[in-house]
């Protein structure tokens, strides 16, 4: 449902260059920016969405989640090339990111996407135990992203061996496939990893923006005639190490299931 | 991942440190192929400090093994941890490689020849 209320974007940053750039771009999008140098200057009413400059660490992300509730989109503002910071932002509760220096088109897409979602009643983001990560199609993010999910499993007392070997290897292969083959390392395409922790299982879905593939046509790398091939072991490992592997119809999302 | 290259008699020893993955596999490939181009024929890759090799890393080892054999050389792998051993078994790569328990066993095997 449309509303006439002004749409307010909180900019939580200390760097003047970041503040100026965001204020300027958001004004173009008819958003009302509210600049806060630190949490003491946050507004009493939750904003439509909040941009948090990760240069100041991830504590503010948790504080914003606490202050504004589970339904306000928190967008990490991250310097380019900072893989560990980006993944940490998602682990702390951000649900999207923009890179600094800003890309106008990217910012416009993010603003529209989250403004729309904030107008619709959505299932509460706090309703189940899950982690969602999102990052550019660059192998520089691989280790951090996989490490974050494995750490989350260990914290939830998933068997250490199964988290360290089975999930780590299978998830590494799934994310690597998404970056290399799904998105073909296009830096403007993103990879999404969503882990859901239930009492009996962990399910991790990796989604790319590619056109998908047919897993049935991948040859078995353990057959003697295929063993000397230098490619084609990733999917085999993924299927061997997981309790279940499911693909969506298009073939651009794979869900790895590990029973606890 | 980093590696250092040493020499024990006529064996070139690559001591790996860290993970061998899609992000760095080309570094190892280049290092080993340079050694082969310089005439080295006995190559040992020591994984004592390596916790993880992904499928791209396994693929590079397969392609290096082929190249070394084609040059009339020999490749030995040493000191795979339990997880890595499991990956080699699952993919049946344990049937393609000579894998020694540790560096000294691999060196003994290579220098006997």
Account of the 3D structure:
The complex is a heterodimer of chains A (260) and B (113). The longest helix of chain A has 23 residues, at 160-182. The radius of gyration of chain A is 20 Å and the shape is elongated. Chain A folds into 2 domains: 8-119, Rossmann fold; 130-259, 2-Layer Sandwich (Heat Shock Protein 90). By secondary structure, chain A is an alpha/beta fold. Chain A has helices at 16-28, 59-68, 83-92, 104-119, 142-155, 160-182, 234-241; strands at 8-12, 32-36, 49-53, 74-79, 96-100, 130-136, 190-197, 201-207, 244-247, 253-259. Chain B is an alpha/beta fold. Chain B has one domain: Transcription Regulator spoIIAA, CATH 3.30.750.24. Chain B is 42% helix and 27% strand. In chain B, helix 1 runs parallel beside helix 2 (55-70). The radius of gyration of chain B is 13 Å and the shape is globular. The N and C termini of chain B lie far apart (31 Å). The interface between A and B is medium-sized, with 25 and 23 residues.
Topology at a glance:
The complex is a heterodimer of chains A (260) and B (113).
Chain A: E1 8-12, H1 16-28, E2 32-36, E3 49-53, H2 59-68, E4 74-79, H3 83-92, E5 96-100, H4 104-119, E6 130-136, H5 142-155, H6 160-182, E7 190-197, E8 201-207, H7 234-241, E9 244-247, E10 253-259
Parallel strand pairs in A: 1-2, 1-3, 3-4, 4-5
Antiparallel strand pairs in A: 6-7, 7-8, 8-10, 9-10
Helix pairs in contact in A: 5-6, 6-7
Chain B: E1 2-8, E2 11-17, H1 25-37, E3 42-49, H2 55-70, E4 74-78, H3 82-90, E5 98-100, H4 103-111
Parallel strand pairs in B: 2-3, 3-4, 4-5
Antiparallel strand pairs in B: 1-2
Helix pairs in contact in B: 1-2
């Amino acid at each position: 449902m449309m509303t006439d209320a002004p749409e307010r974007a909180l900019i939580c940053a200390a760097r003047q260059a970041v503040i100026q750039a965001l204020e300027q771009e958001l004004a173009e999008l008819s958003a009302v920016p509210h600049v806060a140098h630190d949490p003491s200057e946050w507004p009493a009413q939750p904003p439509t969405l909040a941009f948090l400059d990760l240069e100041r660490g991830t504590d503010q992300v948790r504080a914003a989640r606490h202050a504004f509730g589970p339904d306000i989109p928190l967008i990490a503002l991250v310097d380019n090339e900072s893989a560990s910071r980006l993944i940490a932002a998602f682990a702390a509760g951000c649900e999207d990111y923009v890179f600094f220096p800003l890309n106008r088109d990217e910012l416009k897409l993010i603003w529209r996407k989250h403004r729309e979602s904030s107008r619709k009643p959505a299932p509460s983001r706090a309703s189940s135990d899950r982690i969602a990560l999102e990052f550019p199609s660059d192998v520089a993010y691989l280790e951090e992203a996989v490490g974050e999910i494995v750490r989350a499993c260990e914290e939830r007392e998933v068997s250490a061996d199964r988290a360290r070997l089975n999930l780590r290897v299978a998830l590494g292969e799934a994310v690597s496939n998404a970056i290399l083959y799904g998105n073909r390392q296009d830096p403007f395409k993103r990879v999404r990893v969503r882990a859901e922790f239930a009492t009996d299982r962990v399910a991790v879905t990796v989604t790319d923006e590619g056109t998908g593939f047919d897993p049935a046509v991948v040859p078995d790398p353990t057959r003697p005639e295929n063993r000397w091939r230098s490619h084609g072991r990733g999917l085999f490992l993924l299927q061997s190490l997981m309790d279940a592997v499911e693909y969506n119809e298009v073939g651009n999302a794979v869900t790895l299931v590990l029973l606890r | 991942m980093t590696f250092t290259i040493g020499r024990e008699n006529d064996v070139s020893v690559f001591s790996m440190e860290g993970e061998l993955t899609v992000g760095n596999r080309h570094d190892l490939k280049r290092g080993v192929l340079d050694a082969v181009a310089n005439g080295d024929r006995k190559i040992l890759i020591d994984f004592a400090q390596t916790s993880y090799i992904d499928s791209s890393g396994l693929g590079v080892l397969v392609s290096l093994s082929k190249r070394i054999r084609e040059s009339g050389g020999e490749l030995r792998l040493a000191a795979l941890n339990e997880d890595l051993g499991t990956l080699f078994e699952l993919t049946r790569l344990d049937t393609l490689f000579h894998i020694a328990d540790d560096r000294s066993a691999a060196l003994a095997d290579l220098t006997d020849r």
